[in-house]
Amino acid sequence: MNRAAPWAIGAALVLAAGAAVALTPPDIALSQAFYLRGGVGDAVTGRTLVAQVRDASFAERVTAGGGDWDADGNWLVVTVAASAPQTEVDAAVIIAAMQIGDRTFHASERARDSLLGAALRVGTDTVGMLAFELPADVDAGDAELRLITSYSTPQLDDVVVLPLSLDELPSKTEIEITPPEWEGF
User: Fold this and answer.
1) What is the pTM of this model?
2) Structural domain contains residue 10
């Protein structure tokens, strides 16, 4: 064996170790959620939820409860069709978040008639609305609606992610948040 062979083998081992370290996912990856993404208008199916964006609009004012509640501001109202893929036990959208750039906005819980917490059925879409109060400067760009069916942060579970393009959404003076309904009933 010549003198360069041990050095070449040692260098190869160091490079292999460096590659192994670089390719090993961080510890947080052991418990992260699985983001299930679809295209604009696509229905996305996860382990606990099937969802599709049906409509989205900006509004200067939202109302709910037959006029019992209202609020002014820069609102993004999204109509979603959702169902349970396998079981109706605990089937509901519990957390709805809108990711716009590096900012996250949660659906308002003040609108009692929203899709949040509504019971979902297997094979039948529940169509409801989610209202997001946004800062005045947020009215364009790409966004992602993230839907979760549990109260805790999903660990090793799926998150349904539905894309939205805010650039082309209509703007209305007022939108009434109506109670969720089963489609076809």
Assistant:
1) 0.80
2) no
